[in-house]
Amino acid sequence: MDKLIITGGQRLDGEIRISGAKNAALPILAATLLADTPVTVCNLPHLHDITTMIELFGRMGVQPVIDEKLSVEVDANSIKTLIAPYELVKTMRASILVLGPMLARFGEAEVALPGGCAIGSRPVDLHIRGLEALGAQIEMEGGYIKAKAPAGGLRGGHFFFDIVSVTGTENIMMAAALANGRTVLENAAREPEVVDLANFLNGMGAQVKGAGTDTIVIEGVKRLGGGRYSVMPDRIETGTYLVAAAATRGRVKLKDTDPTILEAVLLKLEEAGAQIDTGNNWISLDMKGNRPKAVSVRTAPYPAFPTDMQAQFISLNAIAEGTGTVIETVFENRFMHVYEMNRMGARILVEGNTAIVTGVPCLKGAPVMATDLRASASLVIAGLVAEGDTLIDRIYHIDRGYECIEEKLQLLGAKIRRIPG
């Protein structure tokens, strides 16, 4: 397994480009299965999860055409099997997003129960109940979700999410796009990635309204056609590099991003003492050499503070002035990175779903192990501010969510390199 070695103590300074959003790209790729003519998706990040989704398509008989800029053309008419096998699905939870599109367009689907990061319970029951509300017949057998549409196809329905679910909202929205009649989704996820998917569907001829609010209305259409679409920028990658710059007392400008999709994060960075400036497609941060101030955050569904930025702010608080509390309300097992940071000299106390972080002047480099995607990013930030060398093991987690992380950090002046496993 590859590792990262970081020699800390360098202020980040410079400009980098932000990649396309993995959490928007994966549902958009799944939605290409709804189209009866070829679709091209642009600005895809070069990530393992994207490769896994493309490999999954190949297993089903769909052969995407990839160009040198990682734009992908998908023609779902060549599909040969409606089964998403366990050996691929177990590595990536987002594989379940092919369930709704296959069921809506082809009338049936068989998808293995998914795997993914070990950050707590993320049940698929909302996906199943939502599809049942559209008339689907679903059985669980041998670790697979086996779904069939009624004669004449899925029909519009009403579904209330008792827990806000991003992938659940996306799966039912995609299925409803080809259902007969109107579908109303209440307590729907409001994340920008849901809006990006809705925009993609509408570009193919769907009639989706209300994305970005908690009520989404979909008028089913008979068919969806192809087109060309560019995936939105990655707000979590954006936030991660901003926090890394703030923690190192540095200055960065991030290009090809969107300041309107991470306002809660920008507010907390300003509270930590950063000067933030923004334009239509860029964000700059300047700490003017100052040590950050500790901030308290509470995670919640969008537009509140994102759970995917919680670990990075723990790293920021670990070397900040004062004490900050980080309350995690979305996942119940997302503080595993804390114990690795404490090995580096951090002072973090976990009580239930709350981490109390008392800043120290400096962390000390140490061998650490990544436990999930965002925990990996937090350990990279800790390594950047630590004295000496930090060796991060199990970085395949990082490669699932950050495109060329060591190259981008090197462009900002970090001393970081990958050691092949």
From TrEMBL:
Tagged with keyword Transferase: yes
Pathway(s): Cell wall biogenesis; peptidoglycan biosynthesis
Binding site for UDP-N-acetyl-alpha-D-glucosamine: R93, R122, P123, V124, D125, L126, D308, V330
Keywords noted in UniProt: Cell cycle, Cell division, Cell shape, Cell wall biogenesis/degradation, Cytoplasm, Peptidoglycan synthesis, Pyruvate, Transferase
Annotated Enolpyruvate transferase domain residues: 7-409
MF term (GO), any: UDP-N-acetylglucosamine 1-carboxyvinyltransferase activity
Keyword Cytoplasm: yes
Record-linked NCBIfam families: murA, PRK09369.1
Protein name as annotated: UDP-N-acetylglucosamine 1-carboxyvinyltransferase
Organism per entry: Azotobacter chroococcum NCIMB 8003
Organism classification: Bacteria, Pseudomonadati, Pseudomonadota, Gammaproteobacteria, Pseudomonadales
